[in-house]
Amino acid sequence: MRALFIVNPQATTATPHIREAIVDVLAQELDLTVVETAHRDHASTLARDAAGDGFSAVLSLGGDGTVNEVVNGLLTAPEGPPRPRYAVIPGGSANVFLRSLGLPGDPVEAAQTAVEALRQGREREVNLGRITSGEDDRYFTFCAGFGWDADVVQLVEHERSQGRKATPALYAEAAMKLFFRGDIRDPSLRVVTEDSVLEGSYFAIVTNTTPWTYAGALPLQPTPDSRFELGLDAFALTDSSHAAVGWVLSQMLFPKGLPAEGEGYTTWHDLGSLEISSSHPRAFEIDGEYLGERERVTFRSAPKALRIFC
Questions:
Q1: Alpha carbon of 132 to those of 137, 139, 197, 274, 298: distances in Å?
Q2: Less packed terminus of the chain by CB within 10 Å, N or C?
């Protein structure tokens, strides 16, 4: 089987030793072509062209941002040759999508699992989320966010451009800095579903699975019932006081996650679609990648959109 292996050289675990070990595992079963990404959205272009270039499978080494680019490339490929099947090898600091699938967090072990799945034809179909706005029409694999979390992602990306690594500690530092500076106290968000309207939200998250993210090894679960097999779930913060935010975050860290109902927030489960808008531009992210500021985004569930070897 001809396979394209897309490697993000900036990935946390993309050391030469680990890359060599992964390639050794994959090359035992696959006619492998290895390509490094050179810029943002390069992985998307490579994945989009993979079918036309004769590849039957695409694998990637990188974080959730690399996964997002590959998925969007595969799903926007021109009609014609069959879409290559996809397998993920973790290379980031969080690897939320892969961990949500129950796959190994060690990259060499994950490569072995991918080879076994390819050999056995073991596949899984997963639902995705899809966003549309004036600027976008793209998919996300596990989450999208307006407000605080997107501000955190933007700040972390800035710190990374200054040479810092995207560790869980850096994300926590950025979140606390923005919180105590008062940046989240902006109740400009409006959430509209098929049967409800919520005004005055401080930040909002739309999820396609659980957890939303990780604090080190601990999962943060604002929507613990979210599943790849269902529609979209959502969370909106409606009280930005220190006490309320502290209580909500602590509940997210519990094994069962945040209760569906409580004070200071609202949640929704298994939605086909929803819309989030703001009275002025707010930071927006998908799968941990900052997209810039948006005023209105429509979210839709995309059932069985992706086939993945796992």
A1: 4, 9, 19, 11, 5
A2: N
pLDDT for 12: 76
Average the pLDDT over 224-238 and give the result.
Answer: 98
What is the separation, in whole angstroms, between the first and last Cα of the chain?
A: 17
Q: What is the mean pLDDT of residues 30-35?
A: 96
Average pLDDT over residues 27-43: 95
H-helix or E-strand spanning residue 46: helix 42-50
Tokens representing 114? 């991918």
Q: Is the pTM of this model over 0.85?
A: yes
The label of the residue with tokens 């105590």 reads 180
**C-alpha angle 199/204/207, rounded to 5°?**
130
Rounded to whole angstroms, the Cα distance separating 249 from 251 reads 5
| Strand runs labelled E in the chain | 2-7, 31-36, 57-62, 85-90, 123-132, 137-140, 143-146, 189-192, 197-201, 203-207, 213-215, 218-220, 232-237, 265-271, 273-286, 289-309
Distance CA 122, CA 174 (A): 40
Alpha carbon of residue 97 to chain centroid: 6
64-75 vs 42-50: helix crossing angle, rounded to 10: 40
Contact 301, 272 (CB under 8 A): yes
In the DSSP assignment, the letter for residue 77 is P
Percentage of the residues of the chain whose pLDDT score is greater than 90: 79
The answer to whether the beta carbons of residues 213 and 94 sit under 8 Å apart is yes
52 burial level (CB within 10 Å; 0-12, 13-18, 19+)? exposed
Q: Give kind and range of the element (H or E) at residue 115.
A: helix 107-120
CA–CA distance, 187 with 171 (Å, rounded to integer): 23
What whole-number distance in Å separates Cα of residue 165 and Cα of residue 171? 10
